[in-house]
């Protein structure tokens, strides 16, 4: 079995999941208010999404900001592209663009 380095693992996660949220905690038990708000917005839309708990993956927590050029968590990726963090997610939910973006992701509820 091949062991992937951290950057390769992150890039594979992003490529393999149409919607992935890097967050603190889990969707069932977010461990910060920003992650809780992001998960809430995604759940309202009802599309499935993958997640990575960066609190239990310290190598990913350290490396992802260098890859994404985004310093904080959560970080939402859709179709392999960084969408942004909590403020952007909530803004897109409010203006109606988040559901439209997720509809392009090829994931079924």
TrEMBL record:
Q: Which domain of life is it from?
A: Bacteria
State if Transferase is listed as a keyword. no
Q: Which UniProt keywords apply?
A: 2Fe-2S, Iron, Iron-sulfur, Metal-binding, Redox-active center
Instruction: Provide the residue positions that the database annotates as binding [2Fe-2S] cluster.
Output: 32
The UniProt GO MF terms for this protein read: 2 iron, 2 sulfur cluster binding; disulfide oxidoreductase activity; metal ion binding
Q: Where is the Glutaredoxin domain?
A: 19-83
Which family is this sequence assigned to? Belongs to the glutaredoxin family. Monothiol subfamily.
NCBIfam families xref list:
Grx4 family monothiol glutaredoxin
Q: What is this protein called?
A: Glutaredoxin
- Name the species this protein comes from: Pseudomonas linyingensis
